[in-house]
Amino acid sequence: MAVAALALQQHLLYLSKPTTWLPNRTHLKSQRIGRVSLVSCSSSSSSSSSPSSSPEATTETAESCVNLGLSLFSKGRVKDALSQFETALTLNPNPMEAQAAFYNKACCHAYRGEGKKAADCLRTALREYDLKFGTILNDPDLASFRALPEFKELQEEARLGGEDIGYSFRRDLKLISEVQAPFRGVRRFFYFAFTAGAGIGTFFTVPRLFRALKGGDGAPGLWETAGNAAINIVGIIVLVALFFWDNKKEEEQLAQISRDETLSRLPLRLSTNRVVELVQLRDTVRPVILAGKKETVSLAIQKAERFRTELLKRGVLLVPVIWGEGRTQPTERKGFGVSSKAATSLPSIGEDFEKRAQSIIAKSRLKAEVRFKAEVVSPAEWERWIRDQQKSEGVTPGEDVYIILRLDGRIRRSGKGMPDWQQIVKEVPPMEAFLSKLER
């Protein structure tokens, strides 16, 4: 089962470089580092089966119930696992155990297709037990939940920081936003400073304007005073409008970053039948998402075959998404099917040579598996992301669209209908070109 809930620190978004999630350990789920066992314990049933067991050995604890629940879930006994997590919550759990119980309970509800119950459990874990939202975004066991409307509502609450459930998520989004728009803070400082200056000027100008209106000896000039007051008032209005406009742009940017992170975790099945997340293909291919009716997408793929050689030189990988396909196929409740030993990405400079070499080998093997076309896994989740993207771009959800990604995973270009492959061959540089290196 993909993971749970010790309160380990994590940084959420991986927009610059992909990272490996869910390494092998055991028992209680952690949020990023891996699975960590609070106590390596056996099930209460096995303990009770031994006639020589002491009373202490058969005593149920929140720890033992959570670990037993995880073991049952791994064997497909979801109903029994759910019962264990619920029992753990009645045994005076500490915060770590409660977080684990609520999170894994949500995974059980997601497996059973109970979106509202899963969302309620996750909301409680986020608000009261410091669950990191990145865990929800990346756990394969919650793939079916992420395709439901309840997930979208929860994600929007987290992005806005609502009810304290998304503080860390919003904080990390803002950090990335500041990197992408580094002068927003400087602009806001000047908005505030100039608004304060104009306000002070207005404070002193208004009494002078009243004296000018009354007239008499020593009264200031009416038109000059009125002009100064007007300049200050108009300045305040303009600066406040710019401040709110900048805030609106920031919210739009945060929403786009959130969608980019969701996109990076969408799963694909390669020609070798291997399932990977889109983030694992960064620096390797330029995915071109073709979303629309089956006839339209099939025709676009046929036209792309004429330019196959040139498109492959440019790292193009076709990703067809057929409208409604997610509703006709059975839900993959167990998630993406990604093992905990999924292909790693190139590590950071701080990692040792052995890890770096292993990662480069894994990346090379992955590159060898990439062909001209990939198949989407969890099509309902793909369709939901595309519809959200259409709304953000002012496109009617459900129209035929294409989306071309860069090598670094960000959106390069999108449009209605299907792409002009000849134009793409002209616009997109080959993988070996210098311009392609700048995209990485």
From TrEMBL:
- Transmembrane spans: 189-206, 226-245
**Record's keyword terms, sorted:** Membrane, Repeat, TPR repeat, Transmembrane, Transmembrane helix
- Top-level taxon of origin: Eukaryota
| GO biological process terms on file | photosystem II oxygen evolving complex assembly
Any one Pfam family match given in the protein's UniProt record, by short name? DUF3493
InterPro entries in alphabetical order: LPA1-like, TPR-like_helical_dom_sf, TPR_2, TPR_rpt
- Which parts of the chain are TPR repeats? 62-95
Q: Which SUPFAM superfamilies match?
A: TPR-like
Q: What is this protein called?
A: Protein LOW PSII ACCUMULATION 1, chloroplastic isoform X1
Q: Which organism is it from?
A: Nelumbo nucifera
| Organism placement in taxonomy | Eukaryota, Viridiplantae, Streptophyta, Embryophyta, Tracheophyta
